[in-house]
From TrEMBL:
Keywords attached to this entry: DNA-binding, Transcription, Transcription regulation
UniProt GO MF annotations: DNA-binding transcription factor activity; transcription cis-regulatory region binding
Keyword hit for Transmembrane: no
Lineage: Bacteria, Bacillati, Actinomycetota, Actinomycetes, Kitasatosporales
Name of the protein described by the UniProt record: TetR/AcrR family transcriptional regulator
Pfam families hit by this protein: TetR_C_7 (PF14246), TetR_N (PF00440)
Source organism of the structure: Streptomyces roseirectus
UniProt entry tagged with the keyword DNA-binding: yes
Cited InterPro entries: DNA-bd_HTH_TetR-type_CS (IPR023772), Homeodomain-like_sf (IPR009057), HTH-type_TetR-like_transc_reg (IPR050109), HTH_TetR (IPR001647), TetR_C_Proteobacteria (IPR039536)
Positions of the DNA-binding region: 39-58
Ranges for domain HTH tetR-type: 16-76
GO biological process entries: negative regulation of DNA-templated transcription
């Protein structure tokens, strides 16, 4: 079933707890079964509500999918922001702090199974998802997280810990060397990785990153 451009969100009607139940059921089924195989009937049954209740909150299945995907992306971006603030705002040892940030970011992703099951759905069905929805997901999710990281890399350069001339490119390299390698090894979170393997992947990536962007020795 092909996607169409997402409609404008409908005004909320009904009780907030019903909406939460619908969103939770949709997140579970879209992540487990994909977009095409998930039906409004199935979501209604999982949520314990009627189809009419779902349509009181969402115009159609596509709008519900959009709401679930964007909510998950925003939540995970906030998680990444908190992790970055904890590890990168005040540096003690640049390698250790970058490793701790990378490891905690990867662990958070592994723990966010419901969200990353949706990411797997997006990647599997991307050819049928309209570009506006893909771009909206990328903007509030991956691009927002990369923008946060780029900001910290600029600050670390200003403080003399790194030598970065293009923060956006450096943030992309950092993510490819650390988080993306964990995602690939775990099949986007489908196969849990031992902590030791996550730490090994991230540590190797950080050391490569510092060979590219580490500040020259002082004095």
């Amino acid at each position: 079933m092909a996607f169409h451009s997402p409609p404008a969100p409908r005004p909320l009607r009904g009780l907030p707890d019903k909406r939460r139940a619908i969103m939770g059921a949709a997140r579970k089924l879209f992540g487990r079964d994909g977009y095409t195989r998930t039906s409004v009937d199935g979501i209604a049954g999982e949520a314990g509500v009627s189809k009419r209740t779902i349509y009181n909150h969402f115009a159609n299945k596509e709008e519900l999918f959009q709401s679930v995907v964007l909510e998950g992306a925003e939540d995970f971006t906030r998680t990444v922001a908190a992790i970055a603030d904890r590890h990168l705002r005040k540096i003690v040892d640049i390698e250790d702090d970058l490793v701790e940030f990378g490891v905690d970011r990867a662990r958070a992703a592994m723990a966010a199974e419901k969200h990353f099951s949706l990411v797997r759905t997006i990647k599997a069905e991307a050819t049928r998802i309209p570009r506006p929805l893909l771009e909206a997901w990328r903007e509030v999710g991956p691009s927002a997280a990369q923008g946060l990281l780029a900001g910290y890399l600029r600050q670390l350069t200003e403080k003399g810990f790194l030598h970065v001339t293009d923060a956006a490119k450096a943030a992309n390299h950092f993510t490819l060397l650390t988080f993306a390698n964990v995602a690939d090894s775990s099949f986007n979170g489908a196969v849990p990785l031992p902590d030791a393997e996550i730490e090994e992947i991230v540590t190797s990536g950080v050391r490569t990153f510092l060979r590219l962007y580490g500040a020259p020795p002082r004095g």
